[in-house]
Automatic annotation (TrEMBL):
MF-aspect GO terms: acylphosphatase activity; carboxyl- or carbamoyltransferase activity; double-stranded RNA binding; ligase activity; zinc ion binding
E.C. designation(s): 6.2.-.-
GO BP: any one term: protein maturation
UniProt source species: Thermobrachium celere DSM 8682
The protein's annotated pathway: Protein modification; [NiFe] hydrogenase maturation
Coiled-coil residue windows: none
Chain ranges of the YrdC-like domain: 199-382
Catalytic activity, as annotated: an acyl phosphate + H2O = a carboxylate + phosphate + H(+); C-terminal L-cysteinyl-[HypE protein] + carbamoyl phosphate + ATP + H2O = C-terminal S-carboxamide-L-cysteinyl-[HypE protein] + AMP + phosphate + diphosphate + H(+)
Domain Acylphosphatase-like: 3-90
Annotated protein name in UniProt: Carbamoyltransferase
Pfam family, one: Sua5_yciO_yrdC
SUPFAM superfamilies reported for this sequence: Acylphosphatase/BLUF domain-like, YrdC/RibB
Length: 752
């Protein structure tokens, strides 16, 4: 007989782990206890040593499906304490706490069956949940994960629910959000006449949706704005009120059968759509039926219902809803009732509310499925706060991210805790949410950063925050160049070490020469890098204004190519002013950005002269491109200190094609094929000089699946080892992981 102490770390709280242990233990005749702690789940048992070892192995094999075991530490003692039963005992707080927290989980099949069962006590109960599903991250205030440390604390369980909670054989055993109609939260509807409806709430909401009204719906991680997606007038009204002229809306479909009416769905895409994470999946359109939903591209962002409340909203007459995050322009998603009714009063016709508080804002995740894997555009609900496990360890670090698509990342041991989607750090509301989430993550995971990392751009709010905190609290602060962080992010995402060649293409990031980079091919590792290839610089005439008025970029492409701009090619009302600004170098900035090159070519082709949202020009080019076109334009690859892609011959040929009446579909494809050719030739030349065959691809430009797939395929067919993102976003949301990786491995530029 021996006594054993077993510490299990990972996602082992809020997923039925202790009940699982209680049931499993009976097979081995072991006695002792199990409890939650702020460091994980701790088990102490007494029994025969071989049975203890078999028990530990079975934990790994038979664990609950939502659990993730990161480590099991077993310590065996000779001294026995004489346990005579096995019990679940009260949770405790350790001096140091470290446990992983489950993301929010979509409703499970058992709860969905009960939701639709007229004989079940939770029939149509909007907050049905069990150990296998329901809210987690968004309601947790602190660990260990017990009801009193969640926003469910104010709801006292009735005798029936408490009986389930205490019954080891029940699916709701120790399910912290467990509740029913008698003891749980309730919904109510504030309609367009400002009348609060508490009876037949769902029917009232559905009737208003069918009549074309816009409803603000409180969900898991915040509010959505919803309307009937098949009602074009309602959708246009939502666009007008939300000041979202053309950017696509996400859709929520009743079921997978409904999705297939509008989109092509592969087996892998269906698996992700129906997974317990329930992200928005970008799917290829079958037809143009929802062009007013997704105007500029070939994809629709589709998700399936994930909260019980969502399922109640659908019927045979209402099977597709627009479900877009409820926030005012550039501000965080709204999570509180009072804030919603004030901020959205000019947008929503009605408010479907409830009294379970949301503690943490968390937007829906957004992915492509590429090569069978998740390819993130936004990593948030369903994934956060599960950490990225990395191959390096360092003292606690906080990485503050960039400005657009802001995120932060905290390192503890070899776990990188990447935040949920924060938004663009351009206003005080987003900044305050950013700071509050940093503090929340530090508290949850007991992280006390010794080093702080930020972007090289001094004017980012995230950079200012990092320097301010560093100076106030005597912390070391390091800057990491933007594209080096992109490179390191993809390396860490794939657990790479050593040197790589990195294709890092995006909008803009401040370069070490204090110009704006964005079309860079780097060579290096976590500690250091060399800029090996770039593109000929483009003028941003008017600075940031050129990112909106993208015909300014087109003007400069023509000016640099021909020495003058023919009005027959590009007719601008303010062309004389633009010309003088170029000639006199007034308020004009240089950039080597591929993203801006996309903007300029989009304007040249007449697709768009003004961008209503970031990346619109590039999205239009991808939508327009002829998939079977393999032609490439002429370009020069000039060698000086580094390879430089001279795009002027390409622009000259594009103008000739326009004049000859070549279709925009062909021109768009040839333009992107030319960029693919530039990338592949540059990589081959760098490989010949370095013998490096590991290639990483990162940056916001690679949200363009046409470009990504062709570069990936060509490099792989040439025998390179090609790595893309699979655990974090390829855009600036993934920057913070890269910043962290650089400094954890001894890189970065000390600034405080």
């Amino acid at each position: 007989m021996k006594r054993a102490n077993i510490v299990v770390n990972g996602i082992v709280q809020g997923v039925g782990f202790r009940p699982f242990i209680h049931k499993l233990i009976s097979e081995y005749e072991l006695k002792g206890w199990v409890k939650n702690t702020s460091s994980g789940v701790v088990i102490e048992v007494e029994g025969e040593l071989d049975k203890i070892h078999c028990f530990v192995e079975d934990i790994k094999i038979k664990k609950p499906k939502l659990s993730v075991i990161e480590s099991i530490n077993l310590t065996v003692y000779d001294e026995l304490l004489g346990y005579n039963e096995f019990r679940i005992i009260e949770s405790t707080n350790d001096t140091t706490k470290f446990t992983l927290i489950s993301p929010d989980v979509a409703i499970c099949d058992d709860c969905l069956r009960e939701l639709n069962d007229k004989n079940d006590k939770r029939y149509k109960f909007p907050f049905i949940n069990c150990t296998n599903c329901g809210p987690r991250f968004t309601i947790i205030k602190d660990v260990p994960y017990d009801r009193e440390k969640t926003t469910m604390n104010k709801f006292k369980m009735c005798d029936s629910c408490l009986s389930e909670y205490k019954d080891i054989e029940d699916r709701r055993y120790h399910a912290q959000p467990n509740c029913c109609f008698d003891c749980g939260p309730n919904i109510y509807y504030l309609n367009s006449d400002n009348i609060i409806i508490k009876e037949n709430v769902i029917e009232s909401v559905k009737n208003d949706l069918k009549e074309g009204k816009i409803i603000a719906i409180k969900g898991i991680g915040g509010f959505h704005l919803a309307c009937n997606a098949k009602n074009k007038i309602a959708v246009e009204k939502l666009r007008q009120r939300k000041n979202r002229e053309e950017k696509p809306f996400a859709l929520m479909c009743r079921d997978i059968k409904t999705v297939r009416q509008f989109c092509i769905v592969s087996k892998e895409e269906e698996e992700h759509l129906t997974s317990f994470r329930r992200p928005i999946v970008l799917l290829r359109k079958k037809s143009e039926i929802f062009d007013y939903i997704s105007i500029d591209n070939n994809y629709l962002g589709i998700m399936l219902p994930y909260a019980p409340l969502h399922f109640l909203l659908f019927d045979d007459e209402l099977d597709v809803l627009v479900m877009t995050s409820a926030n005012m322009k550039d501000k965080p998603i709204i999570k509180d009732n009072d804030e919603a009714t004030i901020e959205l009063k000019e947008v929503a016709d009605g408010f479907l509310l409830h009294n379970r508080d949301i503690y943490v804002r968390c937007d829906d995740s957004l992915i492509f499925v590429y090569k069978g894997n998740e390819y993130f555009i936004r990593r948030s609900r369903g994934y956060t706060p599960f950490p990225i496990k990395v191959e390096f360890e360092a003292e606690d670090i906080l990485a503050c991210g960039a400005e657009q698509k802001a995120s932060f990342c905290l390192l503890k041991k070899n776990y990188a805790f990447l935040s949920q989607h924060i938004g663009d750090l351009k206003n005080i509301e987003t900044y305050n949410n950013y700071i509050s989430q940093i503090e929340h993550f530090k508290k949850l995971f007991d992280i006390n950063p010794k080093k702080i990392v930020c972007d090289y751009h001094p004017d980012y709010m995230s950079t200012e925050y990092a320097i301010d905190i560093g100076e106030k609290h005597n912390k070391e602060v390091y800057m990491v160049q933007h594209h080096h962080a992109h490179m390191a992010s993809c390396m860490a995402d794939n657990n790479l070490n050593g040197n790589v060649i990195a294709i890092t293409w995006d909008g803009t990031g401040l370069g070490l020469d204090n110009t704006l980079w964005g079309g860079e091919i780097l060579y290096g590792n976590y500690r250091e890098f060399e800029r090996r290839a770039t593109i000929r610089k483009i003028r941003l005439v008017g600075g940031d204004l050129a990112i909106k008025e993208i015909d300014r970029i087109a003007y400069d492409l023509l000016y640099q190519t021909f020495g003058n701009v023919d009005k027959n090619i590009l007719d601008m009302k303010n062309s004389q002013i633009i010309n003088k600004m170029i000639e006199n170098n007034v308020n004009t900035y240089l950039t080597s950005s591929i993203g801006r090159l996309f903007d300029g070519v989009s304007s040249l082709l007449g697709l768009r002269h003004y961008a209503s949202y970031e990346g619109q020009g590039a999205i239009l080019l991808e939508k327009t491109a002829e998939l079977n076109e393999n032609g490439v334009y002429t370009y020069n690859l000039e060698q000086s200190d580094l390879l430089e892609f001279d795009w002027r011959p390409m622009i000259r040929e594009i103008v000739l094609d326009i004049g000859r009446g070549v279709s925009i579909n062909i021109i768009s494809a040839k333009f992107m094929n030319t960029l693919v050719d530039f990338a592949v030739k540059s990589v081959k030349q760098i490989e010949s000089e370095t013998n490096c065959r590991d290639i990483v691809i990162s940056g916001g430009v690679f949200q363009n699946m046409y470009l990504l797939d062709r570069i990936y395929t060509r490099l792989q067919s040439d025998g390179f080892n090609v790595y893309i993102h699979k655990r974090v976003s390829t855009n600036d949301e993934g920057i913070s992981l890269g910043q962290l990786a650089v400094v954890a491995n001894g890189g970065g530029m000390r600034c405080v």
